[in-house]
Every structure is written in C-alpha cells, then in structure tokens.
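ok so I'm stuck.
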Amino acid sequence: MPRKARSHRLRFGRVSEHGRVYLVTAVCADRQAWFSRFEHGRCCVHAIRELEGEANTLCFVVMPDHMHWLMQLEAGDLSRVVQKVKGSTTRRIGQLRGRPCKVWQPGFHDRALRREEDLQAVARYVVANPLRAGLVSNLRHYPLWDAIWL
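replied:
not stuck anymore, here's the structure
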C-alpha cells in the first residue's frame, strides 16, 4: 500500500475533544534514530513543553526513533497540536545541523483514554519504555522523559 494511503488512513475518524487525555506516538522517518543524540532528543522535549495551554503534558518519553506523549488536549485540534511538536522538533534539529532535515514520518498514532483508565498506570508504562528496550537498567539514567507525578 502506498505511504500516502496509509497516512490518510491514520487520520480517518480522528476526533479532537478538549479535556480528553490522549496517548500519542510519533515515529521518525525510516525509523532513523534521530533522538539517540541527546541534543536532538532535547529538541523534541522543548517542542512538547512549549505547547502548554494547548496540551497539558502528563508524561512523555523520547526514544531513539520515536516518542510517546500522554497529554490532555486543552485547546485546538489534536492533529494540529502534534504537527506543532513535530514541526518545532524538525526546525530545532535543522538549526543544530545547519541544514534542513526530515525527522518524522507522516501521521501519528493516537489513543483516547477512557475516563476510568488509571492515568498513572498508563504513564508508568509509557516512561518504562527505555527499560523494556534495554537502553538503561535504571530509569534515572535515561534523560529524555518526564511525568507530572514525580
């Protein structure tokens, strides 16, 4: 199936509901490990943090080739908010490198959480990704994550 068709299918049926909590996953183009360089990972962290007011970040983890973001949509459209994170990350990395680059694959995956779901359990699962991937043996040693409960 052509890439464009898949990207379009990712957006089919997406609903943006203010006050709803979403788990968003965005993947780097060609699964390139852009964020294995700390300074590139920090570009993504800064992009997430600059969206306060539009999205209330509950937790995130930036993995070498993707990111997970648990957030509550406060204003705007979910697709637009995620696009802002992806665009800002790409611009920041391009500035560091001194040339344009393509960081993200088109689209993203999202899951709206039900109100009764245990947000802290979901957050623990999200931030434990570096442990499950074998990147660190202790989460304290992984620099690209945060959660409001800590």
